[in-house]
Amino acid sequence: MAVRAKMGRLTLEKSMQKLLWAVWLALPLCLPQPAWASRYEGKCIDGRGDFKRCEIVIENGRFKTIYNDADQQSLNVDIPAKQILYMTAGEISNRSTWATVGGAFAIGPLSWINLLVNPNQREFFTVIAIAYEIPSADPTATLPDQKVTAIRVKNQQSVLLKTELEALTNLKVQNRY
Question: Which candidate, 154, 152, 150, places its Cα nearest to that of 47?
Answer without folding.
Answer: 150
